[in-house]
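In these records, each integer encodes one residue's backbone shape. Here is one protein:

___
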Amino acid sequence: MKYFMLLIFLPYSLVACANQDINCSNAVNTQQMRICAEENLNQLNTEVKELESKIMLALIDYSGEEHSNQFITLQKKWTNFVELQCINVRGLYGRGSLAGVSYINCKNKYLRDRVKDLSLTYNEVIADK
């Protein structure tokens, strides 16, 4: 039974060890590309959330809750658009191994653009937040 359990969990531990040695600027297989894309996605999500928080505080300070609620609605609509757009991009790859990576990269592209847009648009009012 010990050997059976070892055989079951060995591949997972090898993958976990392999994840630590990935050079994302030179990812060579789909698994590495996906791991790197997910790391980038997590970082971009964090940046967007931080910007959203700063913008919300600024909107409440300068114009009250009405505008902050409008901003929340805007962000939800933008998030829904990105989700649907990236699902369509993933669909271009069918069941291929790059379908998941293309989906994540699509989200990364839109999040990178959103960070830039939010930063430029609200730069002056969030600088002190």
Remarks:
- Helices lie at 2-19, 30-63, 65-91, 99-126.
- The chain has one domain: 29-126.
